[in-house]
Design goal:
two-stranded antiparallel ribbon; six-stranded parallel β-sheet; disordered C terminus; 10 helices; 211 residues; elongated
């Protein structure tokens, strides 16, 4: 997987390049510090994925993404930012970015996002889930049944289907059905993202309601 990094801070670019270079299936294909350089590098290298900063000095990474797509470039884009503001998040969704990762994320979280986006899925930093809930005025967990909430809590603790079935006194087939419903209702791609979501919102058994 060829990856281009776009960021106006040298230390950030070097740090990201180091993380990418340590992975056998990832290749650091190039870098850029501003919008013009970014478009040139993307056109020259045709990367599979671009890690791009939301703010590039006086430019916006979102504008670079818009221009790249207008030119027919097919690279996927993961937006890197230190901002979790509602305005920035909404703008990113309008541009249909493939991923939105906070710069405070751990390297393994970024690598997970890269792999997920490469497979054609979307990735949003778990820390942004809470903001997304506030925007809608409700929590996606409100749509979960009590048993689905229990399964989600177990997912957050890293339990496999067999362990969940044993702890909740249900069959593994039932667990699979619950997991499938949880993914659909939370609009996440897989059980790993569901687990990250559970931990991000701090869902615990003590917060559950059976009304």
């Amino acid at each position: 997987m060829n990856i281009v990094i776009v960021d106006d801070h040298p230390l950030v670019r070097r740090g990201l390049a180091a993380v990418i270079s340590m992975q056998p299936n990832l290749h650091f294909a190039g870098e850029a510090t501003n919008g013009q350089e970014a478009l040139q590098v993307i056109e020259e290298t045709q990367p599979d994925l671009v890690l791009i900063d939301l703010r590039l000095a006086d430019e916006s990474g979102l504008d670079v993404i818009k221009t790249a797509r207008a030119r027919g470039l097919t690279s996927k884009f993961i937006l890197l930012t230190s901002s979790a503001s509602r305005e920035d998040f909404l703008k990113a969704e309008e541009v249909l970015v493939d991923g939105y990762v906070l710069k405070e994320a751990l390297p393994e979280e970024l690598l997970f996002a890269i792999q997920l986006v490469y497979k054609g899925r979307k990735y949003y930093d778990p820390g942004l889930m809470e903001d997304k809930m506030r925007m809608s005025g409700s929590s996606p967990t409100d749509e979960l049944t009590p048993k689905e909430k229990e399964v989600l809590i177990e997912l957050g603790q890293g339990a496999c289907n067999k362990d969940i079935a044993s702890r909740l006194f249900i069959s593994e087939f039932t667990v699979k059905k619950h997991v499938s419903q949880i993914l659909a209702k939370l609009q996440v791609a897989d059980r790993t993202q569901a687990a990250l979501y559970a931990n991000a919102v701090g869902l615990t058994k003590f917060e559950m309601s059976y009304d």
